[in-house]
Amino acid sequence: MPATSACNSSACPAGPASDTARGCVIENSYRKDKTVVSLFETLSNPAGHATFAIARGTMMNDTDRGDFRERIRQSFSRQAAMHTIGAELTRVEHGVVEIELPFDVKLTQQHGILHAGVISAALDSACGFAAYSVIDAEASILTIEFKVNLMSPGRGERFLFRGEITKPGSNIIVADGRGYAISDGPAKLIASMTGTMMVIRGREGITG
Predict the structure, then answer these.
(1) Gap between the Cα atoms of 81 and 17, Å rounded
(2) pTM over 0.85
(3) Domain tally, the chain
(4) φ, ψ for residue 188 (rounded to 5)?
(5) What CATH number does residue 84 fall under?
(6) In this structure, what are the phi and psi dihedrals at residue 81, rounded to the nearest 5 degrees?
(7) Half-sphere exposure of 86 (CA within 13 A, CB side)
């Protein structure tokens, strides 16, 4: 049977057929200044983010992960790079993290659009912190590889970067990230990332 997309809206930031494989519908609400913006995503398998398999097929529950939301918030607060670019942690769920930042001319390249390095850093952080949500409380995360596709110039009033776990694991975790520009119209997909993270345990200087 041919694959069909659940996303038929012309306002979808990723386009009507771009999420065919995941059967995803993305609806948009927007934010002005500090009013909440969300990109609400309904998946064909809503339980997909609820539980991830970890080592030897065991299932991770809230007790195993500890208070992952608070750990992620504390870890984010120590990230000087995110503070420097004015990024905010706006969503923390099991397997999904969103980071937002306002447009700032200091973050642009010579043509006045958001610099690719800033986009990459924000996507990397979103993917990395999404990985934190599926590991045990004593472990930490380091990125070992990522690939970024820059799909459209970074022009907008605000930018949203979502990291989402694609494949959890006890040692290696794969995540996908998406970056959106938000202005008066529909949110626009400007970049995507696939990142690979290593789970770190018992290494001096790398905790939390």
Answers:
(1) 35
(2) no
(3) 1
(4) -115, 130
(5) 3.10.129.10
(6) -65, -45
(7) 10
Residue 114: give the domain boundaries. 59-200
What is the per-residue pLDDT across 115-158, written as a single tens digit (0 to 9) for each?
Answer: 999 999 999 999 999 999 999 998 999 999 999 999 999 999 99
Residue 44 lies in a domain: no
Q: What is the 3-state secondary structure (H, E, C) of the chain?
A: CCCCCCCCCCCCCCCCCCCHHHCCEEEEECCCCCCCCEEEEECCCHHHHCCCECHHHCECCHHHHCCHHHHHHHHHHCCHHHHHCCCEEEEEECCEEEEEEECCHHHECCCCCECHHHHHHHHHHHHHHHHHCCCCCCCEEEEEEEEEEECCCCCCCEEEEEEEEEECCCCEEEEEEEEEEECCCCCEEEEEEEEEEEEECCCCCCCC
In a domain, 183, yes or no: yes
Beta bridge partners, 199, equal 141
